[in-house]
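yo, NADPH:quinone reductase-like Zn-dependent oxidoreductase is done. seq:
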Amino acid sequence: MRSAYIEALGPAEHIRYGDLPPPRPASGEVLVDVAYTAVNHVDTFVRSGAWRTPLTFPFVIGRDLVGTVAADSPPAGGFVPGERVWCLSMGHAGRQGAAAERVAVPADRLYRLPPEVPGAEAAALAHPAATAYLALFVHGGLRPGARVVVVGAGGNVGGAAVVMAAEAGARVTAVASAADAAYCRALGAEAAVDYRAPDLAGALAALHPEGADLVVDAAGRNDVETAVPLLARRGRMVLLAGMATRPVLPAGPLYLLDRTVTGFAISQAATDELAAAADHVARLAAAGRLRPRRVEVLPLSEAAQAHRRLEAGEGAGVRFVLATGVGESAAGSARSGAVEAARAGGAAPAARPGAAARPGSADGADLTNAPGGRGPDGAAAASLSAMSTSIVDQSPLFEVRAEIRVAAPPSAVYTLVSDLPSQGKWSPECRGGEWVQGEPGAVGSVFRGENYRAQDVVGWAPLVRGTWHTEARVVAAEPDRTFRWMMLSHAKEDQESIWGFDVAPDGEGGSVLVHHFRMGRATAGIHKIVADLDEEDRKRFIAEWTEKLESDLAVTLSRIKDVIEQA
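structure:
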């Protein structure tokens, strides 16, 4: 098979293009016929040895791919031959890379790609958009209404961060060049500040008199001296680029207001975090709300040239994608620039109909009754503030999903799942309720639910049991596509506790229904539950609640399927 590979670490000239033996899939791996693979800065770091990771030579380069499951692929992960898929984590930690006509991908690192997303654009989005997701939701603890500053907003990671933050209901300020101001506003930023401004700190402070909740530096400038004093109490700054920078850390402003500076590398992300990122990116891309600014497609044989151009600084605002000539890339692989998003002039993704927070799931229960999950197991968050060692302080604390196929069109499925008062027909805990504010089912409307929990549910833990009531506010309502609601505290304040449904056509007249739940930081209710538990019992509670939630999700979807198909 034709591949782009190296036989030793070194400059771009070390990249060869030629035939290598096809991969032999190990247990749990899927054979993928690759159409496109992207070129990332981290690819140049791995190739040169600047980023140390185990390699076996000859080593196929590249992280991201778009392709289809091969006809002769062994069964793994539920994937079937011909399915359109993508991956964003090859070429690292002993895995061969993606720049070949065929690749063996671990099933837990492979994701289905919606047909609405062009292959070259998906490859271009994979690494930067997933990085933006991790920065905002995993390491930044983003919540609706947060005040967010994105540095480097005109770039690939920064632009994706602006879109995602705005979609999640945050108020975004972009820091970029003056030429990119209109572009950033079109992405969803409320304000744009020139990074060359003589008094950048003053300009940002004027826009955020109460401070910013989150600063994401996607440019690698790592201007900690400016960002830390800008942060509100318990605000966070997330660093993700600029390995050579040596910023000055203002310690006093950092600890006096419980501020945090944290860093991460996507290469260290856990597989479940990458899966959540891929799901989020795919949904926004399929809806037309997230696109790369500009994509330049080159044939796979020009991989060395793409590396040279990226290292020479030609990649600003441009994503280089390599076409193998296999599958959907066959028509355009012979010429450079075959596919372009062509948005350097300032065009932006389709306007969003409403803010959409990161998905949640099941019934209308406040998270004194919350489901379980786990934190970023492999995430390398190097916090400069005092870091807690408790599992309860991980973010996200809970994040789970389940899906089912339903023999009904998306319109019928959406109508049912957005009818929260009818939840008693399918929810294991919510018995129903009523709309108490706003137009029923519209963004901003509030639902009051009645819930019931038996005494034997995680019986040893100090949970709310019997009957109790909760309130939730709808945060996303896209007919026939997405419906999500956020649990409110007893003081009717937003919590990082979001449930929801996503529905999509299955291509056969029915629908695929996905059910989600996500809790970022632990709510007051969770802290109350675990207050008197030691760390081992806290871990036990999180694990057992995860199992309960997974069971509840499956039951909920099965009951919804029965209700719809029997109607």
